[in-house]
Specification:
The chain has 155 residues and is an alpha+beta fold. The chain contains 1 helix and 8 strands. Strands 1-2-3-4-5 form a 5-stranded antiparallel beta sheet, covered by helices on one side. A 3-stranded antiparallel beta sheet has the order 6-7-8, covered by helices on one side. The mean pLDDT is 87.
Length: 155
């Protein structure tokens, strides 16, 4: 007697297909979450670098101008530094509470340079005997950078 050979075809059951869809969905959600947090990390790092760059530029300007001036030429008033020289006054000051400006010539209009724009939290200066102490605080999205320094004056 001949036995009929049965060809058995193996197909996915509905349960197996559902498990496959569930596993693929979990992998896709995990990949998207990883990409989101990677993007946030890069964005936060970029903001931090921008704040540090702004602080560095402001410190370079401050130190250069303060070192070049004689002690008697410097007037400090809280959040403003004025340097009175024979060639004209130069001034560091805060505008709108959140922007640190440098005016290389107070007698001329339109030559002001924004050193820290729209994220300044604090700028203070104090004249001590023979030196000027300053502090700059920059903040954005909960992250902050604080830079302070003391510059010796010429007599």
């Amino acid at each position: 007697m001949k036995h009929a050979l049965k060809t058995v075809r193996r197909r996915f059951t509905i349960i197996e297909a559902m498990f496959f869809v569930l596993a693929a969905s979990i992998l896709a959600i995990t990949a998207l979450a990883m990409l989101y947090y990677l993007y946030r990390g890069v964005s936060d790092a970029r903001e931090n670098v921008d704040m540090q760059r702004d602080a560095s530029v402001a410190v370079v300007f401050l130190k250069h101008e303060l070192r070049a001036a004689e002690s008697s030429e410097i007037d400090v008033d809280g959040d403003e530094i004025t340097i009175d020289t024979d060639s004209g006054d130069r001034r560091f000051y805060v505008v709108g509470g959140n922007t640190l400006m440098f005016d290389p010539d107070t007698g001329a209009e339109g030559d002001e340079i924004p050193l820290v724009r729209d994220r300044l939290v604090g700028f203070t200066a104090e004249k001590l005997s023979g030196r000027v102490k300053f502090e700059i605080v920059i903040e954005e999205d909960g992250e902050s950078v604080t830079v302070d320094g003391i510059v010796q004056q010429r007599n």
